[in-house]
Amino acid sequence: MSRNPKLAAATLLLVAMTINHAWAAVTGTWSDLGPVMTHIQSSTTGGNPPIVVNGGYLYVSDRTGVSRISLAQPSSWTYLVNPGSTLRIVKLGINAAGNPIISQSGKNIGVWNGSEFATSVLNPPAGSWSSVGGIATDRGTGFIYTAGNFTIYRSTDNGRSFSQVFDLGTVFSGSNGDGFGWIYTVAISPWRELFVGGETDTIYSSLNGGSTWSPLPKFRKGGNRYGVSPTKDGELLISTAFSDSGDDYFMKYTSTGTLVPATSGLPTYLLNDQSTAVLHMAYLDSGENFVVGKYRSDQSVHCLGWDGETWTSIGSLPNGPGAALLWNSVGTDGSNLYVNTSSGQLKKWTPTAKLPFTVSAGENQSVSLASGASLRATISPAGDYNYSWTARGSKDVSFADASALATTAAFSRMGDYALNIKATNDAGLTVGSTMLIHVGAGVAPKITSNTPTATGTVEAAYSFQVMATGSPAPTFEATALPALGLTISSSGLISGTPSAPGAISGRITASNGTPPNSTQAYSIAIRAVPSGSGGAAGGGADSASGMMAGTAGASGRTAKGVGGPRVMPADGCACRRDGAQGSGSSRKMVATVSSLVIVTLMRSRRHRRKSKTAAGARTD
Predict the structure, then answer these.
(1) Torsion of CA 395, 399, 140, 195, to 10 degrees
(2) Of 225, 229, 203, whose CA–CA distance to 216 is shortest?
């Protein structure tokens, strides 16, 4: 260390800047993923659906089907065809069961059922809209959200049916004042906040699964199509099309509830092109956001990365995909970026480094107004950081210590809140995380028991008690149980006696009027009674005489009782000649009663021998 204080300070500053710059630089390597697809997205400039990664598989849709490839073994593509359909696929999502969901031009939503895309049921039916506004799956509940006109739909059965959850026309009158318009964007953040936007004055947000909505700050001019992506500090990067000002083409929605420009380094073609819409963005654990946009002048397409401060083009890196990218065809598994090309060759971009540390605000909570919330954020790796808790746009929240990793929050009124924690290291890098808090009169339910017993047997009573916390006490519902002859009581007891074998998968829901509900996925398989192990008929009483059959020891010999011979296996189970066995209780009864018969017979024989001996002695 230098003895010159000024030189030492300058050296530390240079080191800090070097560390921060080394992270911030958007660098990485391109590589091919899998072979060239046979079914490719045909448009280099159209609004292609996103690339979706889920459960170790990557999904890319073309106009009439979905191509799927394994990320672990990307050797071949599987094509999930939508037979007979002439409608263009405009949106793509994945449900909680890992099956693709598509929306098509028109008013159709289809869910892959293993052989085809089955049409979903919308209630109420579709209005005048031409296509659904988006498909977004809440990974916490498995619920799927979509929209048409100003109607927001939700599915609780993996997309087979959708019901209206909200009418946005009740909070926004529409561009013509008639409470009518189209929604083009539906998205869910990692902290499970729901966003919609379209022919609205701004983007609308719901912190409680669609029950209530509130507007984000207004853009200088209302957009038409939006893209939404989380950022490394637990905030949002938002794109909007049809904007007449470069400063608000890309905006950052901060943890304090304000919009600030995010345009540094952005090429002028994206700043001023009113016909360009960046619909899909991807966030990687390198702390960077990516888009695939196009030049207005020559329609060429380029991939751009944003490190939280400035934009950089990565389309021209060595071995890069160049100008053959497909506009908006972008996706991520969290660690790698995937983009599609006009040739059908999918490209993977792997960043050179990840964030040096991560922070988590913790799971979403539901608390009572009186109790407040206990906040226990976590950070990895441990070290020396500066912390800061904030509540987005609310003066109804106070923190016991806003600069502590673990603290408490008090609320002055009931409602839904977004809380954010940021951590800053010595190099000046800030990373953050957001969580949602519902404050009500009661405490939301939380299922605490393990998943129900996975197996059962035909004609055998099944029973499992589901447990949950919450105030007031939760009540329970479950899907799929009736198919096996089972029911669930309001107190959570799953019971019944299945009459036939089968298997089901469903979801248990605990609710008490305080959102959010708690859900748990389960699977139960009922097996048939194994062959040769029927009921009491196998070891019951002899039908002719009513006498019990004999039994045998461990040798497996043949024992004879009053009812005739029985073949005795080594386990001592009395079997009929036809091979049928009794149940466990029948076997015990047969063995016990038959043992008494054998003991009685043995005593009788000894008595007769003693009688003969005594008689002979008297003769002599």
Answers:
(1) 20
(2) 203
